[in-house]
């Protein structure tokens, strides 16, 4: 392995540690940072990822490692990692010892714009780096009406905490079309439409209207969109997403063990036909969209690792790219106060998932196109192995 | 609340951290401690509770704080707490700050004896403090033959790691009778739990009856205050036999209240002893046979949501079952190794709520003592604080009288 790859893997390990354990800092440390100006601020469009809520205090969305890996920011006062501010520079430190100076992520231009109805564009679509934007059409989930929320999820608590203060609410197709149009002018090249369940599962019409609005405002027939949907009762609905112009589709199964799925995702079990139906939906999506054009996700750390890997391998064999994201028992979820597995457990899992994706021939472009956030650890492993990070070009020069 | 109670409740926060996140120390720190002589050593009769295994390096079984609370020892190098030694005195510390001076438990006298067949008694019955014995008839579990171990359990891994090294294996009724008698006579022991992994073909009932006969013979007690810890039998009538054999109480560990998590994480218990419904039926039948407050269960706390655990404990309490919870410890060799248990504050809150359910249901200290294999859990501590049963209350009262 080249030196640069070894260095990047060490930075990746640190990224996982700080992603799982978080970073400790005085919440007012960023008062010197031009947040909302030069640097991109965190917006609670769906979920709070920090260990505590911080209403009214802005944090940056993330930062770069020295060799260009993008780290999201998770605030946790209990972490042994911290931010230090000294003479105009922020540093990441461990037990008080400086590891490296931190460069925060720059704010995209469209964050300064408003839609034609005067809505602030960052309240419509969040920029998730590397040209990917995400639209959470609804920042609440109707599963709560019957107390069927997924036990690991804090979408409704996040809305109750931040929705009003950050001006986040339901998004209309025209707002989405205009915002995605502006973001694409800024260089964005992928959009995910997602959100909580809507009452009576009326999302399909909405997704079609959004696709029309995006096509109109970007001028693109193929706008590289991912429709992130719950398993529909009538699988033939999936064809409509394809016809509407989405390039890829995503259906998050959350947990591979069918019994744990039943216990932890009561709404997905009771209102969407059970675990078997979620698997069927994914297989049908591959029939419609093709191999490598369908994504799923497992919340890693809720079930034994072997079970997660069994699911990812099974789905890969069917053409589904199933990611895993580290379970974050965040504030307001039914599992608040629980703890995610150790960072080393997660790193090992990510490496094994990347190996499965490779074994089934999934390309980096396929991973990129179907993932809402293309800076996940599995994407990083691909970008290190395939030398796709800017640092490799710089080294060549 | 008196100052002493306030102080003890604050100390329970320390105990929760030390027991859940463990304590860090150099594994050789105890080399000058007279372990196996004056002080009681840890014996791996059932589970390794430390974060790492430590074959060949002896640790003490736990330690007492100055106020008399007992802390089972859990070694974890990542903990914020550590044990340090200074001029022969051991302390619990947090960073540079000393929390308190540690006193290690004395080794019970029977630990130095052997049964008539030459087996060391400390490999037959573990001393769990407060007069409690823990007899593990089998330190392996037959579920592993079909890959059906409970996912949180490391009994088979512990057997593989320590069994030969520490001379732990199958224990015979006569060995148990002799050991229990010695512990009752020499060390003031007054309760025992008979437990172990599943045996093939569920032949445990005959064994339990033979053990009860042997204990009665060697202690001379008809009521020897024993708890038979058993899996849910397919034929519930069997439960009466345990009562007839002389066990005062019975325990059947349900592990989870959520039936789907039970199914996922306890495949052996689910497939070989029926679903959760059968386990609940068993517990209800046990109450009919043994009586209210004479039946114990346990939930592994921290895998299912807290509300689910509390719902189960409240339901079972309403039926007369004393259902404890023990903090999930993702220990080495279990399928969930590398996972983490919830935060100590989460567990302490749960324990306080369970103690409140027990009190509301009218369970007495004697009942929670007699049904549990541990007398030093945080739930026991809460009872002992509320009812002023700890020695520190007597010492304080004596001090006031002296003034």
CATH topology (level 3) name of the largest domain in chain A: TIM Barrel
Span between termini of chain B: 22 Å
Mean pLDDT level of chain A:
95
**Which CATH C-level class of the largest domain in chain A is it?**
Alpha Beta
* CATH homology group of the largest domain in chain B: Aldolase class I
Radius of gyration of chain A: 20 Å
Instruction: Record the strand order, biggest sheet of chain A.
Output: 7-8-9-10-11-12-13
Under CATH, the topology of the largest domain in chain B can be stated as: TIM Barrel
Number of domains of chain A: 2
Describe the structure in your own words.
The complex is a heterodimer of chains A (397) and B (403). By secondary structure, chain A is of the alpha/beta class. Chain A has two domains: 102 residues, no CATH class; 285 residues, Aldolase class I (TIM Barrel, Alpha-Beta Barrel), CATH 3.20.20.70. Chain A contains 13 helices and 13 strands. In chain A, strands 7-8-9-10-11-12-13 form a seven-stranded mixed sheet, sandwiched between helices. Chain A has a three-stranded antiparallel sheet with strand order 2-1-6, covered by helices on one side. In chain A, helix 9 packs parallel to helix 10. The relative contact order of chain A is 0.13. The model of chain A has no long low-confidence stretch (mean pLDDT 95). In chain B, helix 1 packs across helix 10 and helix 3 packs parallel to helix 4. A seven-stranded mixed sheet of chain B has the order 6-7-8-9-10-11-12, with helices on both faces. Chain B has a three-stranded antiparallel sheet with strand order 3-4-5, with no helix packed on it. In chain B, strands 1-2 form a two-stranded antiparallel sheet. With 403 residues, chain B is an alpha/beta fold. The two termini of chain B are 22 Å apart. Chain B folds into two domains: 99 residues, no CATH class; 274 residues, TIM Barrel (Alpha-Beta Barrel). The chains are: A alpha/beta (397), B alpha/beta (403).
